Amino acid sequence: MGNNSWEARADEYSLYGFTDLPSVHERGAVVVTHGEGPYVFDTKGRKYLDSNSGLWNMVAGFDHPGLIKAAQDQYARFPGYHAFFGRMSDQTVLLSEKLVEVSPFDRGRVFYTNSGSEANDTMVKILWFLHQAEGKPQKRKILTRQNAYHGVTAVSASMTGKPYNSVFGLPLPGFLHLSCPHYWRNGKPGETEEQFTARMAAELEATIIKEGADTIAGFFAEPVMGAGGVIPPSKGYFQAVAPILKKYGIPFIADEVICGFGRTGNTWGSQTYDFMPDAIISSKNITAGFFPMGAVILGPDLADRVQAASEAIEEFPHGFTASGHPVGCAIALKAIDVVMNEGLADNVVRLAPRLEAGLAEIAKNPNIGELRGVGYMWALEAVADRATKTPFASTLSVSERIANTCTDLGLICRPLGQSVVLCPPFILTEGQMDEMFEKLDKALKKVFAEVA
Ligand SMILES: *Cc1c(COP(=O)(O)O)cnc(C)c1O
């Protein structure tokens, strides 16, 4: 790494988030300059197939002409405004209408943020505000699940069920984590998947009774856990938990930041898993990654109650400077159109079985314990021993090695625990999919030969 190289300069002045520092010090950061379709290029001219769509979000690839034009046109027309004091841009009005139209709700209201974390944070504040306005100031606890990923702000990190947040002294008090509904990993010997789901539901009800329903503000869940390791719910999970939440008057919020807009093969993950939430959190795909944006989409009941609570004090005292930014809204309008009407969502539906079949072939490797996922989001979990599901020693950094070996072969994929995540852009062609399979298979064989 020459002193004046891009890697050295990145290393000297940037604080990397979620990065394995030993490996980046040894290998140098990949400094990326531009992209073409699902590929990105680095400062050395190397080309990588990004099988993670950036961070799940660049679903239309890295150079979509329609999205670039939507951004350029809106910058030329009106490059920025806020949504405070009774003013908002025309693009914001249009996007709220569109989001309610494509949501599973008949009616609703939308609030904008700059990220998924802020959208979850905003939703928690909405619930606290609402319950307090309705005479239940003690109804403040938030229920999520272990392995859930809801973001990194102090509140959304408290909702995230990952052990790394303990280094910040998080979670904050009042954030409770239920068990992760991952049958393969957490099922007991002899327990059927149905019995496992029933146990998850019983745990939820026991927690509500123990804590008191009147102390619980809401339950948040990703339809498929994303950053926790691509974990689809156990069979019947949402059908089992939804009636319990309803029975105790606990709002059910679907964090659709990854699943929303086509990732699971339907517009919403809640459609794929057949449940009706009270509100939806959206971000990532909402702008196909071309602008930072998040949205809280309230269904009719919560929308009416928040509106009434706001009327009572004459305002909803919350908002970000860039909430409902006109350029972001114009891009989101275009991104939703591109995904839903220009064949991207159809691609996912058409090619998901091919993606699954190709990965299933790779997963025959005896060091792959589980292939899991749906639509265009999958993970392969590495194991030292398949029969006992024993992981590799963490000192071997197996998933880091797999991801680094893939990078050397020109494939970007993400290590997550002992798993490797594949969540390609929706524009991926069959030929590009085969390139991904071939490079991944090669990397896995190489790494397992070294460590097994
Ligand atoms: C990425 C993610 C978030 C956080 O979004 P940021 O834009 O990174 O703040 C929240 N929830 C889920 C499910 C996510 O995948």
UniProtKB/TrEMBL annotation:
InterPro entries: Aminotrans_3, Aminotrans_3_PPA_site, PyrdxlP-dep_Trfase, PyrdxlP-dep_Trfase_major, PyrdxlP-dep_Trfase_small. PROSITE patterns: AA_TRANSFER_CLASS_3 (PS00600). Keywords: Aminotransferase, Pyridoxal phosphate, Transferase. The keyword Transferase applies. The keyword Transferase applies. GO terms for biological process: biotin biosynthetic process; gamma-aminobutyric acid metabolic process. Pfam families: Aminotran_3. Its cofactor is pyridoxal 5'-phosphate. One of its GO terms (molecular function) is adenosylmethionine-8-amino-7-oxononanoate transaminase activity. Belongs to the class-III pyridoxal-phosphate-dependent aminotransferase family. This is Aminotransferase class III-fold pyridoxal phosphate-dependent enzyme. It comes from Paenirhodobacter populi.
